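Lab notebook, design round three. We kept the backbone fixed and only want residue identities now. Task for the bench partner: fill in a sequence for the structure below.
Input structure tokens:
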């Protein structure tokens, strides 16, 4: 359902970028456990990784060597540390692995951390259209340079969706009124009595950022996302072996879980945008009349509807 050229998307990245008081970033030798703590503290799911640039580790400290995404950390925690057996009992003998430098797993799994777009910085004068394709392909945020010291920023999928919401009057009515379909098809779910580790493994193996939690009748009762791993450390790592709803209850102390937002399968693109912005969520679940999941709509699905696939790909210098 990709669209033809939309004039509103000719706006520049500088028009929509966020310039935080302090850009959350880490040195390449920051440990995996420290990165998880930072993500929990600041409510982020990925951070730029810089070269160290000191006497012990030569390098240009201004160089961004990539963006570490939660999916890389989740994959590492699930497969390199937990190593659960057939009964998915969590093995805690490998917890020292959380002291490994984050650069060891940079780009190990995620398309965001390993793609050419994430290793580059876009100029603020570039157009929104320049980042639409990478955002649809799995990149969630890119670095933006204004050319002024200390004014570096980020543009995320959320920024673009909010921009679309603010400029709905300039978008094609026919496109906004059409139903939005999930491009990844059948939703990935887990039973509410399964361990959290099962859900995180499914995300990595199935290339999803979340899984739905269903009860014995198949009704959607919750959502487990990559962000629910933020704040995991050596002392609470064993909670991955808890039933998923118990795990989420314990994680609520570390960060406020996002609400579970459901919608009918015929929900329009415009209404999905409204829900994402109003509820401050990253996904909307499509459910039938009985509450059983039919699919999941992500920000990538929304952006794909506005992406002109005939435009040439732009990889920044």
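Proposed sequence:
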């Amino acid at each position: 359902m990709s669209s033809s050229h939309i004039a509103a998307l000719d706006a520049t990245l500088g028009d929509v970028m966020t310039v935080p008081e302090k850009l959350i970033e880490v040195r390449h030798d920051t440990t995996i456990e420290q990165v998880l703590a930072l993500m929990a503290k600041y409510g982020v799911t990925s951070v730029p990784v810089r070269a160290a640039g000191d006497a012990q580790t030569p390098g240009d400290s201004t160089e961004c060597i990539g963006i570490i995404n939660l999916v890389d950390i989740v994959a590492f925690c699930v497969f390199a540390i937990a190593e659960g057996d057939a009964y998915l009992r969590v093995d805690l003998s490998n917890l020292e692995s959380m002291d490994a430098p984050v650069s060891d797993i940079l780009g190990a799994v995620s398309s965001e951390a390993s793609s050419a777009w994430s290793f580059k910085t876009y100029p603020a004068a570039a157009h929104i259209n320049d980042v639409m394709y990478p955002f649809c392909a799995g990149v969630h945020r890119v670095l933006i340079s204004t050319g002024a010291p200390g004014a570096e920023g980020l543009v995320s999928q959320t920024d673009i969706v909010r921009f679309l919401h603010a400029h709905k009057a300039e978008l094609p009515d026919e496109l906004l009124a059409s139903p939005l379909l999930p491009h990844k098809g059948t939703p990935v779910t887990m039973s509410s009595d399964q361990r959290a580790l099962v859900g995180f493994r499914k995300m990595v193996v199935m290339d999803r950022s979340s899984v739905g939690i269903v009860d014995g009748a198949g009704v959607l009762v919750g959502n487990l996302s990559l962000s629910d791993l933020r704040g995991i450390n050596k002392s609470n790592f064993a909670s991955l072996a808890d039933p998923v709803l118990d795990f989420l209850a314990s994680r609520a102390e570390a960060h406020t879980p996002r609400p579970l937002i459901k919608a009918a399968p015929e929900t329009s693109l415009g209404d999905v945008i409204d829900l994402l912005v109003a509820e401050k969520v990253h996904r909307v679940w499509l459910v039938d009349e009985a509450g059983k999941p039919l699919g999941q709509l992500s920000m990538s699905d929304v952006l794909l509807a506005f992406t002109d696939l005939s435009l040439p790909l732009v990889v920044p210098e």
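Keep this in mind before ordering anything: The first helix runs from residue 13 to 16.
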